Amino acid sequence: MHPVTLAPNQPADRFYRGGERIAAFRDGARLPAPDASALLRTPEDWVGSCTTLFGERELGLSRLPDGRLLREAVEADPVAWLGAAHVQRYGADVGLLVKLLDAGERLPVHVHPDVPFAREHLGLAHGKTEAWIVLAPCRVGLGFTRDVSREELDRWVGEQDVAGMLGAMHHLEVSAGDAVLVPAGTAHAIGAGALVVELQEPTDLSILMEWQDFAIDGPRDGHLGLGFPTALGAVDRRASSADDVRALVQARAGTRGELLPGGAAFFRADRLGAGDAWPAGFAVVVVTHGVGRLVGHGSGEPGGGVEPVEVTVGQTLLVPAAWGDVTVEDAGDAEPVELVLCRPPLP
């Protein structure tokens, strides 16, 4: 068991534009300016995914270089991938989905259900609290500035009153390096030009409040098959103060170590560099800057440890629990390495 470098896993023909900046990031190239004329509709790269798109049987699942689905590999040897403590508490459920997301246009206003809603109405163990580790600055809408009645919410959606929705939301400018927590139930809209590492509960549950001018049939596909009278019950219609919303930016650029303390019940994220380490366990690594190496310890092989794994900006990797504790090192005179470490919640 050793780290696996992942190829892109970008479902095609999504309902919003994007993908050019993911390609540039993965190539280690300078990010291009957002281009409103771009036509790519591959705005999401599902990294280390054991989760399918809503309603699909396989689309969205990651494949290992040997051709196996990651989900099948984990189910076949969960302790090696996830660790004994994780398996004892969660079984073979990885409990995490990581994406690269490139908003080639502003995303529609939408919301994700929480665990109780998903359990009651969809029979699922996970909702979709999520978080964004920002790689390119953007503007985001997040939560309501005032209480919103159910009648007003229904009217916004039924009439597609986008100005009304956006006008009742908080709007924040976020910078590269910021980490933003988005609790389930919070109405939100990521602005054009965003490139983020997105951590989330392992589902694809989105309820659309807005679909006008997007390539999707909202009345048919925007409510998870529940109908809007039920689906819109997932929306948190309460007012949030400006301080409440600013507190969702859990870490700022330059923060090393833990980035999302408020999301620890759902996932963990850390920004690491040379000299940092993490204990054995399943991890998705996104290399955001520079060149370096990962060194595993306690693999169980004679003498312990294995050959270090070289990493460079734009790579995404899976690190199995069986590789042991991991330390991060720089690589000679190259630009110092920086990475985002994404992990499931603690067992």
Automatic annotation (TrEMBL):
GO molecular function, one term: metal ion binding
Keyword Zinc among record annotations: yes
Record keywords: Isomerase, Metal-binding, Zinc
Highest taxon of source: Bacteria
Gene3D superfamilies: Jelly Rolls (2.60.120.10)
Keyword Isomerase tagged: yes
Protein name (database record): Mannose-6-phosphate isomerase
Organism: Salana multivorans
